[in-house]
Amino acid sequence: MAKAERAQERSAERAPARHEVANLSEAQLLDLHRFMVTARMLDERMWALNRQGKAPFVVSSAGHEGCQVGSAYALTRGSDFCVPYYRDLGVVLVAGLTMRDVLLGVYAKVEDPCNGARQMPSHWGSRRLGIINGSSPIATQVPHAVGLAYAVKYRREPAVVMCWFGEGATSMGDWHEAMNFAGIHKVPVIFVCENNKYAISVPQTKQMAIENVADRAAGYGFEGHVVDGNDVMACYEVTKAAVDKARSGGGPTLIEAKTYRYAPHTSDDDDRTYRSKDEVKQARELDPIPRFQAYLKEHGVITEDGIKALVDTIRTELAEAVQYVDQAPYPVPEDALRHVYAE
Ligand SMILES: Cc1ncc(C[n+]2csc(CCOP(=O)(O)OP(=O)(O)O)c2C)c(N)n1
Ligand SMILES: [Mg+2]
Asked: Which residues are catalytic?
């Protein structure tokens, strides 16, 4: 009997598994898993390189992999648009940046494909991959995303735009103006809020008087959804529905993924001044990666040996990328004013 027929027969006998409801094939589950593990391992290596004095500045995505990978995976790579913020390592890996690409930016080497070493690290951009380069002021990417979605709609293109930000960003005027415009013009945009409970040292309770950022969508005339940000399949499912809706003319959706960041805000922050070790330890118990691995093992999609083999492969690729980037040239100082004045 063919594999597909066997799978069909099995699913006829029992209630469908969660990934079947979400319409995710086993190959797609493994894809999601690989992106999450890659993001975590690259993140940990970058942090170590920072502590070794090799990477000047690192923003950690650890803890956010479920919502970053799950949401970005709902886009069509290359033809849809990603408007990420600085914490979105998982998003840009799904969009198509490689570990080497990311490290070239962290080391500010001339070959950095995102900015040619002219931006801070974690400010990714790629015309080829549809990643829109952002600026550092919080929430400024949100009106960019909405403007882009307006252009897409005006030109009757089939693309959608996804824009990510933290819960702290939703206090900014830019954010509210963008939401309002998106609601009025029903543009094809999906807003993903990665709510990790803190804006650097400021806890959510000192940032807003409501529990759910998603409630704010009602004020702008579209749907808001809260999702468990540590559940990659749930994040994919809710985002995919929003993508389908946006693509068929249904306008924007705001998705709030509840998650947590395990490391300090950046490599320059000391989180011991505003949260306890116990709090972080407790949050780590909900880590999206082991949780997804348990699901995959339970459903026979991967084995413990399969996970080990994947980790080994990524470790080798990572070592090659670090070695390459270590030896790559820096930009020359005479180059600093290129792309600033007309030549
Ligand atoms: C307009 C502006 N104000 C302040 C800052 C400094 N700043 C950088 S990140 C950040 C916190 C953002 O928190 P949140 O949106 O929750 O995202 P998270 O870093 O938690 O993922 C702040 C205040 C900034 N970059 N821009
Ligand atoms: Mg935050």
From this structure: 261, 265, 274
